[in-house]
Amino acid sequence: MAEVLPFRAVHYNPNMISGLNTVVTQPYDKISPEMQARYHDLAPHNLVRIIRGRHLPNDGPHENAYLRAARHFREWMEERIMVSEAEPALYPYYQEYSLPGRAATLERRGFIALLRLQDYSARVVHRHEETLSGPKRDRLELLKATRAHFGQIFMLYSDSEGSIETALDAHCREPAWQQLEDEYGTLHSIWKVTDPFTIEQVAEAMIDRQLVIADGHHRYETALAYRDLCRSESGSDERSEYVMATFIRMESPGLTILPTHRVVHSLSGFNWQQFVAGACSLFDWEDVPAQVADWRRFVERLGEAGLGRPTLGVYAQPARLALLRLRKHADLARLLPDLPSSLHSLDVVILHRLLLEGVLGISRQAVLEESNLRYVRELEVATAEVDQGKAQLCFLMNPTPIAAVRDNALAGIPMPQKSTDFYPKLLSGLTIYWLDNPAGL
C-alpha cells in the first residue's frame, strides 16, 4: 500500500530573499564544482551551503560540511529566512520546458507529498537503477545532521486516465504559490492544496499504485537507512518513517527521458582498427560522413535506426562516425548468460557488456570508478571532448524507453547506472520536509 500524506512544508520566506532563483538549486548530484561555486556566490542563503557544502582542509568530527549545513539551516529558521506552512498541504508542481536545441514547449505535472518509506521487498516502491555506497554515506551524514529532506524523490505512478492530475488541476487556476525560471529556462510553478476532500481523494487514489523511482535512488535508500537507525535508537520516531517525493504519472506526455552519452578516455594501447574489427563481429557497421554539421539530424537517424534493434553511434578522430546496429541473429542468451532477457534489448546493457567490456576491455570496476568513462548528457559536449583530444572515442545513445524502465523496475530487475536521464530535474529547496518541525507533520 502506498501511503501518501500532506505536510507542512518549510520553504524560503519571499520577504527575506531577492528571488527564489537565487536560493534554490538543481539536485545535489547534478551540482558540479563550477555550479557549486556559482550557487555559493549567488546569494548568502543559497541552498548549496546546506546540500553541497564545501569540504575544508581542517574538517574533522567537530567541524565539517554536515555540521555547517545543520548550523545554516537552524540559523535560517531562527532568522525566518525559511518558514513553515501552518496547514498540511499537497503541492502541485508543474514544469514548463523545452528540450535542449528544441523550440517546442512541454509541460510535466506532478505533486509533492510525503510517502511512507517501505523496503523494496514490500513491492510498493521499485528501483530501476543500481546505487553506490559513497553517495549514500554522504547523504546519510547530511540527514543525520539536519534531520531534513531538502529535495524530493522523483516517483512515477501509473494513471492512464489522469484522474489524480484532474483532481489537483482544479486548484491550479489561480496564480502559483511559488514560481521561478531556472538556469536552463524551465519554468517551475507550485500551488498549495489544503482542501480536505481533495487531499483524501488523492491519498485514496494512490493507495493501490505501484511506484517506480525515476530519480533519487541514493536519497530513498538513505531515508530507509535513517529510518532503521531511528528505530534502533529510539523505537518511536514517526516522522523518520516518511520521505518527501514528487509523484508524476508515467503516461504524462510531458515525461521526457534524455540519453546519457559515454565518453571513453585514457585507454592504454587503444587501436581504432582493432576496435572496428571487434565491433563488427557483433554489429552491422554503417559509416556516416563525419562532416555532418547537423548533429540533430544524426540523432534522428540514430533514433530511426534504433526502432528495430539496439543501435549505438560511435565517434572518433580523425573524421570517424558510424552507426552500430546489433546483428539480428545475435545470440544474446549466450553472450549475456547472467542477465535476464528483459535487459537484452537495452542499448546501455549492450554497450557496457559487449563493447566496453568485451571489445575495449574496460572492467566493471573501472566503469564504477569512471577511470576510463565519463557520462555526458549533451551530444555536442561528448563529441567536443573527442575533437579536443580529451577522449579517444564516444558512444552516442538513444534514450531508454519509459516502458523498459517500468517493466524492469516492476520485475525487480535494476538497470545499469546512468541508464536514464529524466529531464528536467526537480529543484531542491522549493519545499523542505523538516522532521523536527514544531508546527507538526
Structural description of this entry:
With 441 residues, the chain is an alpha+beta fold. It folds into 2 domains: 4-256 and 423-434, no CATH class; 260-398, Conserved hypothetical protein from pyrococcus furiosus pfu- 392566-001, domain 2. 31% of the residues lie in helices and 21% in strands. The protein has 14 helices and 21 strands. The strands form 5 sheets. Strands 1, 4, 5, 6, 8, 9, 10, 11 and 12 form a 9-stranded mixed beta sheet that branches. A 6-stranded antiparallel beta sheet has the order 15-17-16-19-14-18, sandwiched between helices. Helix 3 runs parallel beside helix 4 (133-146), helix 4 crosses helix 7 (217-233) and helix 5 packs antiparallel against helix 6 (196-206). The protein is globular, with a radius of gyration of 23 Å. The two termini are 20 Å apart.
**Overall pLDDT confidence:** 93
Number of strands: 21
Note the overall shape: globular
The SS-based structural class is alpha+beta
| Beta-strand content | 15-25%
List keywords for this structure.
single chain, 441 residues, alpha+beta, Conserved hypothetical protein from pyrococcus furiosus pfu- 392566-001, domain 2, 2 domains, 9-stranded mixed β-sheet, 14 helices, 21 strands, 31% helix, globular
